[in-house]
Amino acid sequence: MSETHAAHPAPDPAHPAGANSAPPAFEERGSGRSPETPGAADLRARAADLDTADDLAKLRTRFTLPEDLVYLDGNSLGALPTGVAERMAEVVTQEWGENLIRSWSDGTWWTAPERIGDRIAPLIGAAPGQTVVGDSTSVNLFKALVGAARLAGEGRTDLLVDAATFPTDGYIAASAARMTGLNVVPVDPDRAAEAFGPSTAVVLLNHVDYRTGRLHDLPGLTAAARAAGAITVWDLCHSAGALPVGLDEHAVDLAVGCTYKYLNGGPGSPAYLYIAARHQQDFDSPLPGWNGHADPFAMTPGFAPAEGALRGRVGTPDILSMLALEAALDVWEGVTVEAVRAKSLALTDFFLECVAAYVPQGVLEPVTPAAHAERGSQVSLRTENASAVMAELIARGVVGDFRAPDVLRFGFTPLYVGFADAERAARTLSHVLGHIYE
Ligand SMILES: *Cc1c(COP(=O)(O)O)cnc(C)c1O
Fold it and tell me: Which of 134, 182, 220, 434, CA to CA, is 20 to 30 A from 99?
């Protein structure tokens, strides 16, 4: 541990920045020289060493990123993998422009949802044949929740929903509950297991809280829900591609997630639905479109669901976005999600250490848990003027995001973020805070 860090212990969450905290004494003043921060040379040297020793550092060349940008918003929109633009040009000019309708039957189009689902599967710990890509996360939540309610036994009345959930999950859950006659019961994921009982039909939880970055106990909560006879639906938007999920290992029933965050599929790239093999026979989708039919081209009037996860398909897939996502998944060649997780924890530890060294105590309140077992791949820091602070950070080339009312969110994507980026982000943050409070 560096001297600097010892001199400024990590801010204590029990004593958050209050309205009365004195403006910190910052180093930066308009003297013309580049602003320096105590201990910065030391931490910069450490960052360089950590980057040199990092086996994943070379993966940054698999992405197209502006040279001088520290991009800490890959938990909202992942960076552009290098092969995607070329593949898109080929899809548009040849597969669409020249092959036209023939691409549906002769090419790679029709089977894209299940093929790409099986490429995502290893990243979420799923054996092949259980993951299908298409539609948005919100739409897949609807399929999963109504499907789960139909799988749940008779006499169960409650749909338990993560009380701090990403809003769309809550909105969709309320509608699904209304349609299936269930009651929505908000639960604190940290204490959800206590709420599971004989009336619990379905449990919907976010694996990582999008605002605080807290990682919930998927193995323990899934086991507890299963013991109570309930069906679990996990939202993996902030975990897939960032940390091991283990859907099969932990006997999750249903899961959904998006692909434009840690999977770098591009803006609005299609989401996925996981249906555990043991439920596929009975999974009754509330959106039985013709693409999920056992024999779509028979064009029969009655719906007969396809075997396996295919019954989670709805209508014609959005091929351009699908094939961009497929090309984006090439960045995972030779990379394990376990290695990504190890680097993510090292990066977030180092970022927190730099923040503690550079920013006076009490100005920022870390809301992401310090314990590795409870931390996703982001660091959220609460502060006054968070919106203005983030705007200024972005103006200085450090891109994170702001979540109302007072959270600065920094996503750490180990495939293309390094330790020098973490140090620069913390240093720039200290300068911005000094500037804001001056
Ligand atoms: C990003 C995110 C979503 C997004 O849903 P869309 O339908 O893709 O817009 C849903 N849930 C969670 C937890 C998210 O983080």
Answer: 134
Residues of the domain holding 196: 108-332
User: Which of 262, 330, 238, 289 lies closest to 132, judged by CA?
Assistant: 289
| Residue 268 CA, ligand 1 centroid: distance in Å | 10
Report whether pLDDT(2) > 80: no
Q: Residue 233 is part of a domain; what is its CATH number?
A: 3.40.640.10
Burial class from Cβ neighbours inside 10 Å (0-12, 13-18, 19+) for residue 271 reads buried
Catalytic residues: 166, 235, 260-261, 409
Within a domain: 11: no
Distance between CA atoms of residues 195 and 227, nearest Å:
12
Last residue of a domain, one of 290, 308, 332: 332
CA of 123 to the centre of ligand 1 (A): 18
Which residue minimizes the CA distance to atom 11 of ligand 1?
Answer: 166
User: Which residue lies with its CA nearest to atom 1 of ligand 1?
Assistant: 237
State the pTM of this model: 0.92
Query: Are residues 119 and 248 part of one domain?
Result: yes
332 has a pLDDT exceeding 50: yes
* pLDDT tens, position by position, 35-86: 567 688 999 999 999 999 999 999 999 999 999 999 999 999 999 999 999 9
